[in-house]
Design goal:
Elements: H1 3-23, E1 28-34, E2 46-51, E3 57-60, H2 66-74, H3 82-89, E4 90-94, H4 100-109, E5 116-121, H5 122-131, E6 153-158, E7 164-165, E8 172-179, E9 185-193, E10 196-201, H6 207-210, H7 214-227, E11 231-237, H8 255-269, E12 278-282, H9 288-301, E13 307-309, E14 317-318
Parallel strand pairs: 3-4, 4-5, 5-6, 10-11, 11-12, 12-13
Antiparallel strand pairs: 1-2, 1-14, 2-3, 7-8, 8-9, 9-10
Organism: Flavobacterium oncorhynchi
Protein name: 3',5'-cyclic-nucleotide phosphodiesterase
GO molecular function: 3',5'-cyclic-AMP phosphodiesterase activity; 3',5'-cyclic-GMP phosphodiesterase activity
Length: about 325
């Protein structure tokens, strides 16, 4: 082989490697403030999400805030005070539904918080206004609703399938309805940063149990993003092991139903498109023996080859 051909081959290999690294570049950083689905009030669903290399975080659900920030600081994720993360780093909250394990951190920390936006669908916002921020259960820190609004938070109602800019960030959001014990609704948030996306699902049951097509509609909407490798990951709950009877799922997923739903997504996005795709498992419900069991079941049923991620409170990762 001549020197010229060797140099040409090296150039081709370097170029291919560069393109490969470009495809694998991360777009988002995640700091879980809470990852569990019940009992432990210091570790309930809440995930900080921001574009990489920024501190412009949004909080996806808000079950635990302060305790999670403290764990992240202990882990050296943040080098500032708990108050500064709360008041300056978190630019807004996205509440998937108004159950207390998804909103209690927002409520409890509201007196110490700074002005920002709380995003939710109409039904979710109505529940928070009427039952929490109502000047009776808790002071109304919002800019509308019962009593005397203190106007610390701007309550922004999100409409389905409409892309909405997220204030004080470079990101946008689209929302999709989920079924969480039909007819009660939860929400999926599709977050966009440049040409990259992350999908976060609040609590949801499988379509077949919920007698709904919400998940099928969601998978149809995001399938092109999976095909084009623009979707960096899906946050999705698995609350119970497979032994949980359907009538006692209460709007949640098992490993079996998770994989069935992911197969529906793959049918829409194309065979093999989910191999090594990031699936972030949320809302694990104690006791520990159930969590151990469902993790083993997910491992054994993962015939799609997805990359399963179990986030830990206060431990940063990138997507």
């Amino acid at each position: 082989m001549t020197l010229f051909k060797r140099l040409l081959l090296c150039l081709i290999l370097v170029t291919l490697n560069a393109f490969s690294q470009k495809d694998q570049k991360t777009s988002f950083q995640v700091v879980p403030l809470g990852v569990k689905g019940g009992i432990d009030e210091k570790n309930l669903s809440a995930y900080l999400l921001a574009p990489v290399h920024t501190n412009d975080y949004i909080c996806l659900d808000a079950g635990t805030i302060n305790a999670g920030i403290e764990v992240a600081i202990k882990n050296k994720v943040f080098k500032v005070s708990t108050s500064e993360v709360l008041r300056k780093y978190i630019k807004g909250y996205f509440i998937s539904h108004a159950h207390l394990d998804h909103v209690s951190g927002l409520i409890i920390n509201s007196p110490a918080d700074s002005s920002k936006t709380v995003y939710a669908t109409e039904k979710c916002m109505e529940m928070m206004e009427n039952h929490y921020f109502n000047d009776q259960t808790w002071a109304n820190f919002g800019d509308k609703g019962p009593g005397t609004p203190l106007k610390k938070y701007h309550f922004e109602t999100l409409k389905t399938n409409l892309e909405t800019p997220i204030t004080n960030t470079q990101m946008t959001v689209k929302v999709f309805p989920l079924s969480h014990v039909n007819p009660f609704e939860s929400t999926a948030f599709l977050i966009k940063n440049g040409d990259s996306y992350v999908l976060y699902l609040g609590d949801t049951g499988p379509d077949v149990v919920e007698k709904s097509d919400n998940l099928k509609n969601l998978w149809t909407a995001v399938a092109p993003l999976v095909q084009n490798k623009q979707l960096k990951g899906i946050f999705i709950e698995v609350s119970f092991p497979n032994e949980q009877p359907d009538q006692f799922l209460f709007g949640h997923l098992t490993p079996n139903y998770l994989m069935k739903e992911l197969h529906v997504l793959e049918e829409l996005s194309g065979k093999g498109t989910l191999k090594d795709f990031n699936i972030i498992i949320t809302h694990l419900k104690p006791p520990t023996k159930n969590i151990v069991k469902l993790k083993e079941q997910i491992k054994n049923q993962n015939d799609l080859g997805v990359k399963i991620i179990y986030p830990e409170q206060g431990e940063r990762f990138e997507l």
